[in-house]
């Protein structure tokens, strides 16, 4: 079990943020980020491959990779973070592949969303839940 | 659990099915009260390929008692399915006879009484006899080790796993995968692998910095048996840096990585593999979920969760094999592989009854050599036990009750926490407790104890977190250990609830007072995964001191955890 006082308190603080920050504020921040990216286009849950760990080995640096053939840009959102926008990748016409990787910090267990904008303006999406845990006690 | 109909649907020839599993044979032998080595080894040799699977030995060189779990709850889609079946339900599901050798080997019921009759199980010298006999029958049989091999005993602790490495070198497996091995430190893992003849496989062992497959471990290797090209893909324990101290192997990242697994399966098939075997340390439920997502794996050799199943479990076209732990069982799986398809099979979970199977002399000598330098320390009697001492079970075991009592008493704490490890063999009432027995349940590389203040809120946060690692309905979010053991405090748990809502009624046992969120409690524990570990003396010293003071250990039944939502 990992529960040095500092670590546990840090985890507790993260959980507290998630608990006490009004859920509406999260929803608004995510909706705003999504709207700004998608406009009025419908979202289809296909065509995006999002790779994220099921359980983060370290919530402070979670590796995430995304691939969406034909995309002109890809937005990654950490929907449970106070500031959900993680990164937006843009792909020019000469890009050999529309895939990219990054790392992000997660405030706690949450959904990661990848939105891909296609050349015709249509939007594709993939979602993956990443668990942030204290850990320990396995095996 | 496999059924004849399932196999017909999977177009596997029914003619090769041996009893359903070979269990029928055990039951008959039990009725005759005539268990012999010949009977235990008898097998309907089938097809052209033989796989021998042994896993989770946890460095048990000598025969042990190992009580199977009384409580092993399945959640979500796994509810009520093997391996989440125990005791009488297990006996009924597999058609065993209560009180028979197989019921003793596979369930907890009447454990101490049956243990006196049927004796200890396992011992690597007995395992060697069985492996040699199978190889005599099929010389190119593959021996595959599922990992958790180099940790879990006094001698493994003192030799940094070298005793087990020497034993495995004599057994000559084709390949292994990993979990606790990495708690020896990644340098030691690489050092050992550079020196052995077999392959260390793990498609999910990645370079942490570059997020790419590690160059230190192969994802897969090809072997040949009966002229069949067999690909064995390794799958190390996915949650190593979370369940164990990541600072001990900082170069590596793990994870399930099922998409990469699919890529590896496609790759080996493109390279001409006629049979694809996954040597996994995922844990049974994770393997069951992975088998439903990844296509093209013929056999998954499961590990980690220490389940022993007398029949394969079929998921789609993938066969899952569960071979137990601590050297208690070896699985023999014969396959008839024709044109890249399994056309027939025979399977037997061979119970290693140590009083029935003759020790292999060469291995017995090697084991004696490993133990000789430590014989005095190993055999020192610390006390005796009036209670059955066991660990395995979702919520508590008496070994952990003893450890928690020792922590509370020796470290003057209100509450004790002991990790929900699944390794650690059992003792029966009346047994001496030797230092060897103590190390069998505590021997590992981050044993130091801590004593710290925690608020009720923090204690709940920890327990909720661990509970979700066990009872999350999605197996991919389970780590495969058991619930953290708690001393000094009782609680109710509703396993069907989401994280944060499972635990209620947290109560101090000695006063009956409710745990208050903002009140501070003194908590003692061990096995911290934080970098540098904990500051206190190792757990084995704490427990040894306690046992010596007590003389005789007697534990009251532990009813402090009330489980609902099953």
Report what the structure shows:
The complex is a heterodimer of chains A (about 140) and B (about 575). Chain A has about 140 residues and is an alpha+beta fold. Chain A has one domain: SoxY domain (Immunoglobulin-like, Sandwich), CATH 2.60.40.2470. Chain A is built from two helices and eight strands, in the order H-H-E-E-E-E-E-E-E-E. In chain A, the strands form two sheets. Chain A has a five-stranded mixed sheet, covered by helices on one side. In chain A, strand 7 and strand 8 form a beta hairpin. By secondary structure, chain B is of the alpha/beta class. Chain B folds into two domains: about 375 residues, Purple Acid Phosphatase, chain A, domain 2; about 180 residues, 5'-Nucleotidase, C-terminal domain (5'-nucleotidase,  domain 2), CATH 3.90.780.10. In chain B, the strands form seven sheets. Chain B has a six-stranded mixed sheet, covered by helices on one side. Chain B has a six-stranded mixed sheet with strand order 9-10-12-13-15-14, with helices on one face. Chain B has a four-stranded mixed sheet with strand order 21-25-19-22. In chain B, strand 5, helix 10 and strand 6 form a beta-alpha-beta unit. In chain B, helix 9 runs antiparallel to helix 14, helix 16 packs across helix 19 and helix 17 crosses helix 19. The radius of gyration of chain B is 23 Å and the shape is globular. The two termini of chain B are about 20 Å apart. Classes of the chains: A alpha+beta (about 140), B alpha/beta (about 575). The interface between A and B is large, with 31 and 49 residues.
């Amino acid at each position: 079990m990992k529960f040095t006082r500092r670590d546990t308190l840090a985890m507790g603080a993260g959980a507290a943020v998630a608990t006490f920050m009004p859920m509406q504020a999260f929803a608004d921040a995510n909706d705003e980020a999504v709207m700004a990216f998608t406009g009025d286009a419908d979202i289809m849950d296909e065509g995006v491959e999002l790779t994220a760990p099921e359980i983060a080995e370290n919530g402070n640096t979670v590796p995430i990779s995304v691939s969406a053939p034909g995309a002109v840009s890809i937005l990654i959102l950490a929907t449970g973070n106070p500031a959900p926008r993680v990164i937006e990748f843009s792909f020019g016409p000469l890009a050999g592949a529309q895939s990219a990787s990054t790392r992000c910090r997660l405030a706690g267990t949450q959904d990661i969303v990848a939105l891909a904008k296609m050349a015709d303006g249509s939007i594709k999406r993939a979602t993956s839940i990443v668990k942030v845990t204290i850990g320990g006690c396995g095996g | 659990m496999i059924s004849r109909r399932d196999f017909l649907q999977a177009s596997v020839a029914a003619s090769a099915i041996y009893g359903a599993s070979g269990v029928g044979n055990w039951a008959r032998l039990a009725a005759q009260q005539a268990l012999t080595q010949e009977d235990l080894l008898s097998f309907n040799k089938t097809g052209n390929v033989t796989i021998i699977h042994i896993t989770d030995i946890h460095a048990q060189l000598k025969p042990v008692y190992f009580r199977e779990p009384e409580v092993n709850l399945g959640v979500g889609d796994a509810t009520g399915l093997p391996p989440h079946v125990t005791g009488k339900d297990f006996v009924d599901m597999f058609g065993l006879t209560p009180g028979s050798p197989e019921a003793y080997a596979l369930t907890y019921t009447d454990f101490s009484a049956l243990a006196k009759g049927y004796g200890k199980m396992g011992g690597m010298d007995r395992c060697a006899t069985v492996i040699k006999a199978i190889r005599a029958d099929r010389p190119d049989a593959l021996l595959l080790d599922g990992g958790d091999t180099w940790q879990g005993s006094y001698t493994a602790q003192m030799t940094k796993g070298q005793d087990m490495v020497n034993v495995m070198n004599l057994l000559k497996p084709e390949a292994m995968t990993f979990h606790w091995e990495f708690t020896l430190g990644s340098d030691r893992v690489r050092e050992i692998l550079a020196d052995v003849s077999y392959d260390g496989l793990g498609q999910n062992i990645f370079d942490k910095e570059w997020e790419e497959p590690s160059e230190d471990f192969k994802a897969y290797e090809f072997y040949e048996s009966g002229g069949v090209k067999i690909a064995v893909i390794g799958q190390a324990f996915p949650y190593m840096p979370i369940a164990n101290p990541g600072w001990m192997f900082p170069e590596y990242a793990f994870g399930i990585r099922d998409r990469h697994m699919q890529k590896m399966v496609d790759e080996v098939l493109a390279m001409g593999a006629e049979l694809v075997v996954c040597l996994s340390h995922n844990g049974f439920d994770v393997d069951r979920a992975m088998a439903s997502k990844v296509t093209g794996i013929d056999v998954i050799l499961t590990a980690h969760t220490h389940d022993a199943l007398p029949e394969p479990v079929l998921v789609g076209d993938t066969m899952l094999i569960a071979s137990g732990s601590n050297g208690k069982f070896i699985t023999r799986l014969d396959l008839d592989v024709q044109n890249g398809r399994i056309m027939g099979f025979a399977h037997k979970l061979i119970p290693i009854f140590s009083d029935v199977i003759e020790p292999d002399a060469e291995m017995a000598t090697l084991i004696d050599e490993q133990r000789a330098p430590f014989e005095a320390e190993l055999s020192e009697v610390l006390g005796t036990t009036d209670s059955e001492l066991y660990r395995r079970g979702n919520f508590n075991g008496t070994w952990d009750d003893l450890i928690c009592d020792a922590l509370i008493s020796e470290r003057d704490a209100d509450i004790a926490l002991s990790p929900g490890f699944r390794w650690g063999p059992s003792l029966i009432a009346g047994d001496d407790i030797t230092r060897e027995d103590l190390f069998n349940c505590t021997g590992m590389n981050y044993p130091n104890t801590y004593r710290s203040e925690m608020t009720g809120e923090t204690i709940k946060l920890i327990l909720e977190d661990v509970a979700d690692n066990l009872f999350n309905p999605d197996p991919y979010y389970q780590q495969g250990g058991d619930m953290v053991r708690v001393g000094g405090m009782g609680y109710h748990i509703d396993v069907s609830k989401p994280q944060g809502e499972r635990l209620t009624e947290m109560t101090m046992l000695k006063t009956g007072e409710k745990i208050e969120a903002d009140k501070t409690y003194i908590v003692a524990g061990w096995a911290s995964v934080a970098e540098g570990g904990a500051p206190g003396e190792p757990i084995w010293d704490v427990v040894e001191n306690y046992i010596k003071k007590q003389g005789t250990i007697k534990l009251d039944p532990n009813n402090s955890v009330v489980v609902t939502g099953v």
